[in-house]
């Protein structure tokens, strides 16, 4: 088994230590680090960025060639770890011999301990894993009152209490976070714009993980059920199908047959993933697709209405105005006007 020991509170030194242990090529751009791996120890990448509010975002997309442990000792910051597994499986513990908590695909976990314990990630040989870890430094002092307020809330909810030494939580399946991580992967901007976009999306992921924890506690109290991982994958797949083909005249019966899920499972899944009913999701997809067509094509409004699967121009104008606070014709005219001005 390969053991990697990280005894540092700075992201730059941490990536230097990772490179020394695993090899690979280390790139740094605008405070963002990325270690590209392709050796007999590991293939893939590990990336990370630290923001001024003492939040570090790490992203692992890696396959280790042997059972591997990454052991972090960070008593000076004592972070709360908000983790999310996008693919594969990983395990987390507070010592090599402690009980491990496993995260499967689409699961979120929150882990913290007293400052004297290590933070340990366990990776299985030849198992591809993709996950993110948002570390919030609980012991750092900030000059920003709003940041201190956030930390106080996180410490109150997610640090050990009543003499306990560890706090562990593994949540139910959540696809909203996976979508936000995909948004980070798709960011093409560079420099300060990229930093700001990642920062904003990381805060959204953090909020979603906190909300997931809150909802799981509520569901446990009320003995609510939840969808299986396979069913969540089916929801994600049918959602992508609707986005790719908004022109189809969908019905709940059609979507149920295509996905293999009951109508009630569909509604539950769309509520969990998109916070919308199936009908609301389809309508929103059509409006957003229409808005993009107005910006990127020369189609007239009637042609766009037909292209996105609607039959009534007046109805389209109504739902477009509800979302964008202007009529589609006004929006189109101003797009053209901006094009001429530019």
From TrEMBL:
An example molecular function term from Gene Ontology annotations: DNA-binding transcription factor activity
Q: Which residues form a coiled coil?
A: 203-230
Q: Which organism is it from?
A: Cellulophaga baltica
Gene3D superfamilies attached here?
Answer: Homeodomain-like
Query: What name has this protein been given in UniProt?
Result: Transcriptional regulator, AraC family
Residue ranges of the HTH araC/xylS-type domain?
236-334
Q: Which UniProt keywords apply?
A: Coiled coil, Transcription, Transcription regulation
- High-level lineage: Bacteria, Pseudomonadati, Bacteroidota, Flavobacteriia, Flavobacteriales
**Is this entry keyworded Transcription?**
yes
């Amino acid at each position: 088994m390969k053991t990697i020991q990280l005894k540092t509170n700075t992201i730059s030194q941490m990536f230097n230590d990772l490179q020394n242990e695993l090899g690979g090529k280390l790139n740094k751009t605008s405070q963002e680090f990325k270690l590209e791996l392709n050796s007999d120890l590991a293939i893939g990448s590990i990336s990370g960025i630290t923001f001024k509010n003492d939040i570090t975002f790490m992203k692992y997309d890696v396959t280790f060639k042997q059972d591997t442990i990454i052991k972090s000792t960070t008593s000076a910051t004592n972070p709360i770890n908000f983790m999310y597994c996008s693919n594969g499986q990983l395990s987390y513990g507070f010592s090599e011999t402690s009980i491990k908590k496993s995260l499967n695909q689409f699961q979120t976990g929150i882990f913290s301990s007293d400052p004297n314990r290590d933070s340990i990630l366990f990776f299985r040989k030849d198992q591809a894993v993709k996950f993110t870890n948002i570390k919030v430094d609980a012991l750092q002092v900030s000059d920003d009152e709003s940041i201190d307020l956030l930390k106080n809330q996180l410490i109150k909810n997610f640090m050990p209490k009543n003499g306990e030494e560890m706090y562990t939580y593994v949540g139910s399946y959540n696809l909203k976070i996976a979508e936000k991580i995909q948004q980070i992967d798709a960011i093409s901007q560079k420099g300060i714009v990229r930093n700001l976009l990642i920062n904003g999306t990381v805060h959204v992921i953090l909020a979603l993980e906190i909300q997931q924890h809150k909802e799981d506690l509520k569901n446990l109290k009320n003995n609510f059920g939840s969808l299986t991982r396979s069913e969540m994958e089916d929801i994600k797949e049918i959602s992508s199908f609707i986005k790719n083909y908004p022109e189809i005249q969908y019905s709940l019966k059609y979507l149920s047959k295509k996905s293999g899920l009951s109508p009630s499972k569909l509604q539950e899944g769309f509520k969990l993933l998109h916070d919308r009913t199936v009908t609301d999701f389809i309508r929103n997809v059509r409006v957003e697709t229409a808005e993009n067509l107005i910006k990127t094509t020369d189609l007239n409004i009637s042609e766009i209405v037909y292209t996105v699967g609607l039959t009534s121009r007046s109805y389209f104008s109504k739902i477009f105005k509800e979302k964008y606070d202007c009529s589609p014709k006004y929006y189109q005219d101003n797009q053209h006007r901006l094009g001429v001005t530019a």
